[in-house]
Task: structure prediction
Amino acid sequence: MASSLESLNRWVEDVARLTEPAQIHWCNGSSGEIRLLTEQMLASGDLIALNEETHPGCSLHRSSPTDVARVEHLTYICTRNRDDAGPNNHWMDPAEAHAKVDALFAGAMRGRTMYVVPYCMGPIDSPISRCGVEITDSPYVVANMRIMTRMGAAALSRIEAEDSFVKGLHSTGELDPDKRFIMHFPEELAIKSIGSGYGGNALLGKKCHALRIGSWQARSEGWLAEHMLIVGIENPQGETRYIAAAFPSACGKTNLAMLIPPESYREAGWKVWTIGDDICWMKPGADGQLWAINPEAGYFGVAPGTDHKTNPNALAMIQRDTIYTNVGITADNQPWWEGLSEGQPVSDWQGRAYDPAKGPAAHPNSRFTVAAQQCPSWSPQAEAAQGVPISAIIFGGRRPSLVPLVFEARDWAHGVLVGAAMGSETTAAATGAVGVLRRDSMAMKPFCGYNFADYFTHWLSFDKPGAKLPKIFHVNWFRKGADGKYLWPGFGENLRVLEWILGRCDGTAGAEETAIGLVPGIADLNLDGLAITPAASRELLGIDEQAWQSELAAIGKYLDGFGARMPQRLKDEQRMIAEALASKPAKSIRAANG
Ligand code: GTP
Ligand code: SPV
Ligand code: MN
Result:
């Protein structure tokens, strides 16, 4: 069998023949290399220097105004059998997809440099990590990949020693939305992305590899590739436990991963340790627990809303050596976005004079790219080859009504249903309408590289003898009162909910049984010092079982939409809850009555 290096060399030659670059640069990831690349981008206007005194080493990139978010309608899973991609994905026949994009790649790199970017997703020495190579003609993508992944010489050595790697081909092409495609070929471990230079469309290690191709590999190899943050919670006794949480895009993962405990918790000795803010790879260990790594080495976080009050750790980590994309700038050249309490924008994200009538200064999906280590709460365990053991898995989304602040699934299979049934309002992280409620199973609707029905079967399969699985919970920070305002203060205060969750894992926290799961009574949550009325807390924890009956009916319909591949076990769970809601009203409203 040909070695990986031979296969890499051959692929680079083939791509060069097709795309006709002026030169080829193999990235080694060194500091000299990135210094030179940054100078070139500052000279070409790809990057704009920011205030060197307040933000040393920081720069701004303005993307094309038609290229500001992931494009789910142009993202395809190309499997030989259409059913393997499932109703949750756009599908194209692999041969047709290759022909379609190869025609766009022909000559696409003329006059440009083609960068060959070897990278490793996860610590270089971790058995859970996987490698890939991205070929791109965007120096901005190279600079981002250098922050977001372990990129360069060490990754190339690992690739040489292994027998496969993910091949990702990217070109910004003409940035024409009509000539834009994000194609995945899981059976070939390949990605072809053209026509976008933005985020998950272009940084192929992230959503394309670590989730879409990763989830496919995970199923065949017995692990999980998930759209989850990983956070360590250290209690006053000095014990740290790890939680993984799946929220859809722009629904609070980065914020929860870096939360700063409320003052009373800090004084008592609680600490929070950040492992990852977007992606989690989990594998059962010899001890039966799920062990997790963050395959990324940096954060590509949402800028708007990041402030001292909401996410002080994030604000602190982005004061130096950060790439900003599509934010506004102040008169003295500092980055600015909506929600930042200091400074005034003079230019908006498109470089126009700031005019509130023309919209926000920063694009709602504007982002920062920063090395993980710069986060004040960064955990050295993020480098641990074996990963960290997961005690609890949390699902959640933006639900303005119905869904309580927190509830616990009775067991693993119920938890899988809770994840599968997740719904959330859409956000600016993807092109399209914002604020529309849609099902987003496990926050993976845009990212699962295969049929959701098979994915749920895979999740269910972890429940086997000897497994010491995490408990599963659902949270909702976004429930609104009659006045349209959030009922829950969120952000740092979310630790109060995490404390209850960990208390449930220990068996020390109380809960009330309802048809939808175990809900804390008001006395089970620590609400000391919170300016929240008893009526609001009752509303936050309350269950309107009539509304839940319609929700369960909608969930049943959603599951049926996947046809014969949908596991019966999940349908049974749905039916059991629907029946319990219909037959046990007295018990299920206990939480609502406090
Ligand atoms: P992706 O990077 O797109 O996957 O997003 P994410 O899940 O990491 O979301 P992020 O933490 O960046 O939060 C997105 C938005 O939600 C920001 O504007 C936050 O201010 C807001 N947000 C985060 N946590 C909370 C919370 O607890 N309560 C409220 N009300 N808003 C929150
Ligand atoms: C998301 O949309 O979930 C993100 C941003 O984390 S992107 O990298 O564009 O996918
Ligand atoms: Mn994300």
